[in-house]
């Protein structure tokens, strides 16, 4: 069975991908810029016909996905560890090289395969860039179409269950 899912990359958080050690438990909260972008995301979702007051959304366990969903207007949120950010274990330099080359680390591919085997029941997921890139690769979406999307963006994909 094919199913359409909207993947939302969280809005910009305080710090960057190399500052994870500063927020070890639930991750970095949104920055002021991220809050503005999440509010703009609400308009994008409305244009897609999504009623954020009624539509349930799946979020990761990290605060930036929850804040993105809340500011975008979602009222019904369900947390899933399977949507969490992928810890690649790479150094900042190695990760920058991976991203510059639009590569996907094996651990991210494994996380995406696990997600596709047991996806959240909701049709909207708020998650993280590398997991989205890995999902795209596992689904055969070419990297020119979808790799790591812009922060606070929504992308429709089709999964098979």
CATH architecture: 3-Layer(aba) Sandwich
Strand fraction band? 15-25%
CATH fold name: Rossmann fold
CATH first level: Alpha Beta
Strand order of the largest sheet: 3-2-4-1-5
Low-confidence stretches: none
Rounded to the nearest angstrom, the radius of gyration is: 15 Å
Kindly state the percentage of residues in helix: 25-40%
Task: Report the order of strands and helices.
Answer: EHEHEHHEHE
Number of strands: 5
Between the first and last Cα atoms, what is the distance in angstroms? 5 Å
Summarize model confidence as the mean pLDDT: 92
CATH superfamily: Phosphoglycerate mutase-like
The helix/strand class is: alpha/beta
Query: What profile does the largest beta sheet have?
Result: 5 strands, mixed
Tags for this model:
single chain, 161 residues, alpha/beta, Rossmann fold, five-stranded mixed beta sheet, globular
